[in-house]
Amino acid sequence: MFVDDSLKSFHFPQVHRELAIWRRLNHENIVPLLGIASGFGPDNSISMVSIWFTNGTLTSYLARKRETLHHRPRLELLRDIAAGVQYLHASEVVHGDLSGNNVLINGQGKACLTDFGLSTASGGFQGTSYFGAGRHGAIRWVAPEIIVGVGQHSTFASDIYSFGSIMLQVLSGEVPWSEVAIEHVIVQKLTDGQVPRRPSIVSRTHWAFIRKCWSPSPRNATRPSSRPSAPEIVDFLNSRLHGKMSCFFRLTI
């Protein structure tokens, strides 16, 4: 895992802080940072060392398993991802770049979050840590307020929006906005308040929950988001896996 070109202008102490944030994370659904190495490639890039994930990214895994991955394992993948997000948020960490390309799948089919702070970084080590969301391809998962808002930081709520997009991807097998090939068209649709279409394979209950994750961000930053919290997402997915109605849905529908 190589630090990209956008970090070459950063001073090492700032890179060190981001490495320190990842290193202090310890959860079964977070890819562990084993260490760093340097001297690779013609520009002596800094590399981050983690364990090897046999099944690659969530996006590639879903593509390979399109016809064979049943509904329950898909829900288990989502619960893994939600548990990772819940841990991050409880640790006052905003991922800021959640997508099908930043979730890795191990040999047992367990999902783990990765890619912490490799694009842009702002904010200090103390308190909430923010990671930038601006990579090529990530636009399919990103919250519209990050695109529309000038200088808008990623937030816990924008992570939840991105989780809703991952949920759509896992349940349908297609990346969000699969019907739109050109990314700037997606940007325009997000700016206009549009959301991806509902695939027929996604149930009404799951679609309703995805839409809750995509609830519009309040214009007034002091107002709470109507998107579910990470614990509410975990509760919902556990309820679906165990055939019960979640507390979240009892309270909101």
TrEMBL record:
Gene3D superfamilies: Transferase(Phosphotransferase) domain 1. It comes from the Eukaryota. Keywords: Kinase, Transferase. InterPro entries: Kinase-like_dom_sf (IPR011009), Prot_kinase_dom (IPR000719), Ser-Thr/Tyr_kinase_cat_dom (IPR001245), Ser/Thr_Kinases-Pseudokinases (IPR051681), Tyr_kinase_AS (IPR008266). One of its GO terms (molecular function) is protein serine/threonine kinase activity. Pfam families: PK_Tyr_Ser-Thr. Residues 1-245 form the Protein kinase domain. PROSITE patterns: PROTEIN_KINASE_DOM, PROTEIN_KINASE_TYR. This is Kinase-like domain-containing protein.
